[in-house]
Structures are given as structure tokens and as C-alpha cells.
Design a protein that fits this description.
This protein is an alpha/beta fold. Helix content is 41%, strand content 13%. It contains 14 helices and nine strands. It is globular, with a radius of gyration of 21 Å.
């Protein structure tokens, strides 16, 4: 192996880490980060952005007082100890009551009011877990100590119908506004993380200062944009989708898709598609900028941004097959009832399976993938010096 790049000593560099969503799949990100931290223990990543479950990882790293390696080690221990009952609670009576209330309100057109259905699962266990594991004051301390330039977490505003990126960082960071996304400066707290991770319908919306918010992946169609707005010129993004294979029918024609298969497709669209599409847009912009004549400056506000997009070598949904028995009993029955045992439903399981038999495998795969791609990672980070 070639010589390691020198550790970064200052967060004034333009390196950013972009962590996307995907429920329990976010464990894959941790495995990748563990491999990087082992090889560059003093690395400083000045800009951290996250959405959905990636927001949990980003906030944990941003709040940690120690080195990058120490922060990643703490994050790994937290995920290894995590189980589904520390993320969500599903009470059979509550599910039946909520389902009947939902049906009643749909039939009679009463979709609002004090009895409105708020979510099938309760996020209070995750609130308690994160409240104990992340010391949010550490974000402010790391910014003041110049170990961190900015943290940005995205959530979806239900009242605005667009993505809102909450930024904590230097005061001189300008806010931005686009047709489907905007930013706001704030002091990031637990509710911002929970809002970013609140999958619609599955979890209740989270009330912040100006309204109710849900999972940021829903409307964050440009997940690389927050890091670029924050000044990053080099991005390390970790996808949870393996390289796409040539299209082929997964089931014989005539088999009507089960509800679980449809939900798998919807969740994949929300959690996986946006990063792929945004990375393609960035590559196109970079190519166009490279074609500009040397005497012609690029348009104002447009610059070349280097991207290292790391992907799983294996399908993370397939790894969840056969593990539905590890889900909490009520969730298992619900998933099975909508066709969760069918082959195309494994992606749905992968988002909900916060259990060590699955999450530890994801971390192992992430670690081995990063080791296998280390020469590429090392070369990319050498450019950050």
C-alpha cells in the first residue's frame, strides 16, 4: 500500500462528507468510515451533511469532541448496540386503532383535527436513544474550536412542500433558496435529527419552529447541494445502492406486485435515487466546465467539484432476505401480511431491520468495500492536502 496522506490539521480545507438516508442501511456508511479512520486517524472533515438516517451519523460525528477515528469508533459502538426497540415502538392496539381511525377519516373525509393519524410507529425510543448518545452542545464547541466548519441536515417541510436544510456553522455562510429547497441557520438539536429521519406515514412528523417536518430524503432532490453551498470542492458521498445491473424482469409476467414490493420501490426512490441523479448532474457540470475555453470564466457561482462516490459491492436489500424473523413480532406480521416474504420485498425489510444480524453484516461489507477501494480513496484524499 502506498504512503498514507498526511492527516488534516485544519478544518479550513474544502472536504465534505455527504451521508444519505436509508434506514438501517446507514450502517454501511459506518463500515466505510471505520476503514477510512483506521488508515487516516487524524483526518478532519470540516463539512458534514446528512439526510434521514445519514443525519444521525452526521450529527454524531459533528458532536464528538475527539479525533475522527475516535468519533467513528463511538458511532460504530452505538450502531452495534442498537436494536429495533431502540428505534421504534409498535403496539398492536395502537396499530389497529390507528388503522381504523385512518380508514374512518378516509371514508368520511375527515383528514384533520385532533384525532388525525400521526404515524404507524412511535419514534420515542429513538428520541431517548439519541438523547443519551449525542451531546449536541459538542457541535457548537467543535465549531468554536475550528474542528468543524459546518453541519447541515435536511428535512422536508410539510407546509412548504420542499426540503429545508438546517445549517450550524460560521456566521458568514450565506443562506440559499431554490424552487424546491432552502436553507436556514439554526442551532441543531435532537428534533432536527428526528425530523430528518421521520419517514412519512411510518413515523409521526416532528414539529420544529415554523411547522411540521418529515424525512429529508423525500424532497431533497439534490443531496450534494448543501455541501457545495457550504464551500466544499471535494465530496465523499456514500451511496447505499450497489452498481445497477442490466434490466431483467425479477418476477414472471403475470405476478401482480405485492404491497411490500411496491413499498420497496417507493422507499428506494426516496432514499437511493436522488444521490445517483445528483452525482450524474455534477459530473455533467464538471465536463461542461472542462470544455470552456481557457479565456472564458465559468458562470458566477459555478465551479468544478470533485466527487468520490462509494457504493456497496453487494445488494444491501438482498442481504436482508431471510432475516424477517428478527423484526419485532408486530412489525414482522405487518410486513408478512403485505407480501414481505416475496423476493422483491427485501428492500423494505432492509430499511426497517435495525437488528445486529443485519446491521453488523452491513458494517462488515462497508469496511471490506472501503479496503478494496482504498487506492482510489487514498488518491482522492491526497488531492485534499
Amino acid at each position: 500500500m502506498s504512503q498514507k496522506p498526511e492527516p488534516k490539521g485544519s478544518p479550513s480545507a474544502d472536504l465534505a462528507l455527504v451521508l444519505s438516508g436509508g434506514g438501517a442501511r446507514a450502517c454501511y456508511q459506518v463500515g466505510v468510515l471505520v476503514a477510512i479512520a483506521e488508515r487516516v486517524p487524524e483526518l478532519q472533515v470540516p463539512i458534514l451533511t446528512g439526510v434521514s438516517a445519514g443525519a444521525i451519523n452526521a450529527a454524531s460525528l459533528a458532536a464528538h469532541p475527539g479525533t475522527f477515528q475516535s468519533a467513528v469508533g463511538t458511532l460504530r459502538r452505538q450502531w452495534k448496540q442498537l436494536t429495533s426497540d431502540q428505534v421504534y415502538a409498535v403496539r398492536p392496539i395502537s396499530v389497529v386503532r390507528s388503522s381504523l381511525r385512518w380508514l374512518f377519516k378516509t371514508l368520511f373525509g375527515r383528514g384533520s383535527g385532533p384525532g388525525v393519524v400521526r404515524g404507524l410507529m412511535d419514534m420515542d425510543p429513538l428520541r431517548r436513544h439519541l438523547g443519551k448518545s449525542i451531546v449536541f452542545e459538542g457541535i457548537t464547541q467543535n465549531i468554536a474550536a475550528k474542528r468543524l466548519a459546518a453541519l447541515a441536515l435536511s428535512a422536508t417541510s410539510y407546509s412548504e412542500g420542499r426540503a429545508v436544510t438546517f445549517i450550524q456553522g460560521c456566521e458568514e455562510i450565506p443562506a440559499w433558496q431554490r424552487s424546491l429547497r432552502r436553507s436556514v441557520h439554526t442551532e441543531i438539536r435532537l428534533d432536527h435529527v428526528l425530523a430528518s429521519a421521520a419517514i412519512p406515514i411510518v413515523f409521526p412528523a416532528v414539529k420544529l419552529e415554523d411547522g411540521f417536518y418529515g424525512d429529508g430524503s423525500v424532497r431533497q432532490i439534490a443531496p450534494l447541494a448543501p455541501a457545495i453551498h457550504l464551500g466544499a470542492r471535494r465530496l465523499i458521498a456514500i451511496s447505499m445502492r450497489s452498481p445497477r445491473q442490466p434490466w431483467a424482469p425479477s418476477v414472471p409476467i403475470g405476478d401482480y406486485p405485492a404491497a411490500a414490493e411496491v413499498m420497496s420501490l417507493l422507499f428506494s426512490s426516496i432514499f437511493l435515487d436522488h444521490l445517483d441523479a445528483d452525482s450524474e448532474r455534477l459530473k455533467l457540470v464538471n465536463r461542461l466546465l472542462a470544455e470552456l475555453p481557457s479565456n472564458r470564466p465559468p458562470p458566477q457561482g459555478v465551479r468544478t467539484v470533485d466527487l468520490l462516490l462509494l457504493r456497496p459491492s453487494r445488494d444491501l436489500g438482498v442481504l436482508a432476505r431471510g432475516l424477517e424473523a428478527k423484526l419485532p413480532r408486530v412489525v414482522r406480521l405487518l410486513v408478512q401480511g403485505i407480501g414481505g416474504r416475496r423476493e422483491g420485498a427485501s428492500d423494505l425489510l432492509s430499511y426497517l431491520l435495525f437488528e445486529p444480524p443485519y446491521t453488523e453484516v452491513l458494517m462488515e461489507v462497508g469496511y471490506s468495500d472501503a479496503v478494496a477501494q482504498w487506492s482510489e480513496i487514498e488518491q482522492f484524499m491526497a488531492q485534499c492536502d
